[in-house]
Specification:
Helix content of chain B: under 10%
Structural class of chain A: alpha+beta
Radius of gyration of chain B: 17 Å
Distance between the termini of chain A: 16 Å
Helix content of chain A: 25-40%
Number of helices of chain A: 7
Radius of gyration of chain A: 19 Å
Order of helices and strands of chain B: EEEEEE
Number of strands of chain A: 19
Shape of chain A: globular
Oligomer: heterodimer
CATH class of chain A: Alpha Beta
Order of helices and strands of chain A: EEEHHEHHEEEHEEEEEEEEEEHHEE
Largest sheet of chain B: 3 strands, antiparallel
Number of helices of chain B: 0
Largest interface: A-B, 91 and 60 residues
CATH architecture of chain A: Roll
């Protein structure tokens, strides 16, 4: 199963330019992977090449890892019902990152939660889920455990009872890949930021003081829990929230962040958690793990040394690891926990 | 956050929207602007010299659910930057 990444020289016509008010950077956005993708670059004239490169990465990731596409590589694996598989480099990296994230978070994230999500009703493209079905969700399906999945380079051994879901790391991985591709398309000149559904990675030289970004709570939340401006000069930032991707089953509100140990939506004090890390995949995994960790999240985050911003359901905001409490640069430790052993050289 | 003003308005996005207006993000760079770090791929990057000045937010991190759009207009001779939060449709892995 080889999914070569096509080399695109011109971007798709889906992109729309965004005027941020600064002529020094060029920004464009499009729908992608069921969410929004946004690319910011400088110098502005490098935008076309960056967008074409990002298109290639997003298309490849969707074909590799989307469990909602019948023609994706991961769907083909699931249809086989377990066994030994030779993966494309891209899917091998994606699963490898998910497994490393599970090891790092001690199972707070776990790619074997696929069946748990299906049991809860998250069994199709989110936009296609009936948000108020009357029948109850299926029985809770605790994750079988990431330790049962064996990955040796491109060889995957998957037990028959396991369905993978890479939701804790896939968007972050995609942002990491896309920003690398954007920089490569412009031969390393200038700088780039790529955001996939709010999980973002930066590379190259940032604007002075860092890329200006916003941390935003749900509409209706005001004050410090509503919107915070910060700046990012390296690595990535990701946010996980329990108030998006919600649906009902028999009157019970459910959401997409599943506690692997129970197979049920994670409960706890946090409405949203934002984490910055050396890569967006690290940040993505840490943000999801923090939601699952609940009351223990601050202690776990402190042990990682990662800057984080945690907002409670009643609007209180906590900062750990040096996350600025006002507009300021986020300082990020340089080491990644989920790459290294997981990343084959040159994979996009 | 000190430069945030109290102005709030509802923009016509058709979605439930809360907007906060402020003049702009600070133009001055943070004190740590010359710090260095390691970027993706291991290349050293700095947040200081060499890059352009960017005062307005280029992206939003929001748990996938919220998109903030920025609108800039001049009111009574002052530039007012408005952020409008709106929910977005999503699918996810």
């Amino acid at each position: 199963m080889v999914n070569p990444v096509p080399t695109l020289t011109t971007p798709t016509p889906l992109w729309q330019r965004v005027d941020t008010g600064d002529a020094t950077v060029a920004v464009a956005e499009r729908a992608a992977l069921g969410t929004g993708a946004r690319v910011a670059v400088w110098p502005p004239e490098s935008l076309g090449g960056a967008l074409a490169a990002v298109d290639g990465v997003l298309g490849a990731l969707d074909r590799q890892a989307s469990r909602f596409r019948q023609d994706s590589e991961i769907s083909a694996i699931h249809r086989r019902g377990g066994g030994l598989f030779l993966l494309s480099d891209g899917l091998a990296e994606a699963i490898g990152v998910a497994l490393e994230a599970a090891r790092w978070t001690q199972g707070l994230t776990d790619p074997t939660v696929g069946q748990a999500l299906i049991s809860l009703g998250y069994d199709r493209d989110f936009a296609a889920i009936d948000p108020a079905r009357r029948e109850p969700a299926g029985s809770p399906a605790p994750a079988p455990g990431w330790e049962q999945v064996r990955l040796d380079g491109p060889l995957l051994r998957l037990p028959a009872n396991i369905r993978l879901d890479l939701g804790a790391t896939a968007k972050g991985l995609g942002a990491d890949r896309a920003v690398r591709a954007a920089m490569a398309a412009n031969r390393g000149a200038g700088g780039a930021l790529v955001s996939l559904g709010g999980d973002m990675a930066v590379a190259g030289q940032p604007p002075r003081g860092g890329w200006p970004i916003l941390v935003a709570g749900e509409p209706g939340l005001a004050g410090s829990s509503g919107i915070q401006p910060v700046r990012l000069s390296s690595g990535g930032v990701a946010t996980s929230s329990t108030t998006c991707r919600q649906w009902r089953r028999a009157g019970r509100m459910l959401h997409h962040i599943v506690n692997p140990r129970t197979g049920l939506p994670a409960e706890g004090p946090w409405q949203m958690v934002s984490v910055a890390a050396a890569t967006c995949a690290d940040a993505n995994a840490a943000a999801t793990a923090s939601i699952v960790a609940g009351a223990a999240a601050e202690e776990w985050l402190a042990s990682t040394g990662l800057p984080a911003r945690l907002a409670t359901h009643d609007g209180q905001v906590r900062y750990v690891g040096g996350w600025p409490d006002a507009d300021g640069l986020i300082g990020i430790p340089p080491d990644s926990h989920v790459y290294g052993r997981a990343r084959p050289a040159g994979v996009r | 956050m000190s430069n945030w003003t109290a102005a709030a308005l509802v923009a016509g996005t058709g979605a439930a929207a809360v907007a906060l207006a402020h003049h702009a993000f600070p133009v001055s760079t943070p004190a740590a602007s010359t710090a260095s770090a390691t970027g993706i791929g291991g290349a050293a990057v700095t947040s200081g010299a060499g890059g352009p000045q960017a005062s307005h937010a280029v992206a939003t991190t929001s748990g996938s659910g919220v998109v903030v759009t920025t609108q800039t207009k001049t009111v009574n001779g002052k530039v007012v930057v408005t952020q409008v939060r709106r929910p977005a449709p999503y699918r996810d892995y």
